[in-house]
Amino acid sequence: MLCRQSTEIMKAKGAVRALFMSCAFLLWSIPAWGEPSSLVAHAQKSHTEATVMSIHFLTPQAGWAAGSKGTILKTTDGGQTWRKLSSGTTALLTGLFFADRRTGWVAGAGGTLRRTTDGGETWQAKPLEIQYPLYHVSFVSPSIGWVVGGGGTILHTTDGGDHWVEQRSGTNAALYSAYFFDERQGTIVGALGTVLTTEDGGATWLPRDTQGAVTLFDVYFADQINGWAVGNAGALFQTTDGGVRWIDRSLPCGRTCIKLVDLLKVRFTTPQLGWIIGERGMLYKTFDGGVTWNEEKPLAASSLFGLSFPDTNHGWASGENGTIVHIQTGQ
């Protein structure tokens, strides 16, 4: 991989170690023998060596993936076959979202934002007046969505992406992920322990205290009040009040710990069943709403950046060297 591409991927991953952490933490727990895992994981052939930064499935059959060198992939058979699409760009693509089988978005380096209205067969650029990298895109309806990125960037659309308006974040920190319940209530996380919340659709964003300078890569809510954020060096934070207060749930490096790993994506398929992926293909799973997290067998030898569950029985993870793994939960 070219040095420039490698540098961009490291930036997208946000692997900047916090300089002011008083001690190192890692998510770790002894595997819970009382909850035998019925998880089955199968590597799928992506036919690419690109780093697959993001993956999104609408159904257990229909999915898309995006990554380095402008790579966009599509499957209509649950990943048994992946087909490469023409994105019209060579930029590193780090964010991917489909509202339905036809309408989707990708975001990436240098302010890249592109839209498809034919299921990914063709992509149209949406010129923006920013050059910051864009890391995450999501919509709560066909017309209302947000994009977040470097330099505290928050962009908002109310017309399906024809026009984008910058919202005032109050920070210059890189913003890596966002979760929106509806048109008004949302949470954004990023570098330097940044957590922002809104209850008015982003007209105002309020900073929330995490009491640390860790980089937070992802945020997800299991329900309206219970949410999780994950980040570098095993950072794990929980909220039980909709994002107002965040509690550090990272655990000390345990007996299986060799090196502190970055936790890169978190998802919940039920209020009790949650998943975390990250560096070196690691996978953690909770059966009890995050009271305990159990270390599973690694999904891959390489780092994983993307995670998507279209239902409670099927999930997909993606990462370095074209890695795409199908997860069958057995739930």
Furnish the topology, listing elements before pairings.
Layout: H1 3-13, E1 40-44, E2 52-57, E3 63-67, E4 72-75, E5 83-85, E6 93-98, E7 104-108, E8 112-116, E9 124-125, E10 134-139, E11 145-149, E12 154-157, E13 165-166, E14 175-180, E15 186-190, E16 195-198, E17 206-208, E18 216-221, E19 227-231, E20 236-239, E21 247-248, E22 263-268, E23 274-278, E24 283-286, E25 294-295, E26 304-308, E27 314-319, E28 324-328
Antiparallel strand pairs: 1-28, 2-3, 3-4, 4-5, 6-7, 7-8, 8-9, 10-11, 11-12, 12-13, 14-15, 15-16, 16-17, 18-19, 19-20, 20-21, 22-23, 23-24, 24-25, 26-27, 27-28
How does this model look, in words?
The protein contains one helix and 28 strands. Residues 1-7 and 13-36 have low confidence and may be disordered. It has a four-stranded antiparallel sheet with strand order 1-28-27-26, with no helix packed on it. It has a single domain (3-328), classed as YVTN repeat-like/Quinoprotein amine dehydrogenase (Methylamine Dehydrogenase, Chain H, 7 Propeller). The radius of gyration is 18 Å and the shape is globular. The termini are far apart. A hairpin with a 4-residue loop joins strand 11 (145-149) and strand 12 (154-157). With 331 residues, it is mainly beta. The protein has one helix spanning 3-13, and strands at 40-44, 52-57, 63-67, 72-75, 83-85, 93-98, 104-108, 112-116, 124-125, 134-139, 145-149, 154-157, 165-166, 175-180, 186-190, 195-198, 206-208, 216-221, 227-231, 236-239, 247-248, 263-268, 274-278, 283-286, 294-295, 304-308, 314-319, 324-328.
Please give a handful of descriptors for the protein shown.
single chain; 331 residues; mainly beta; four-stranded antiparallel β-sheet; 3% helix; 38% strand
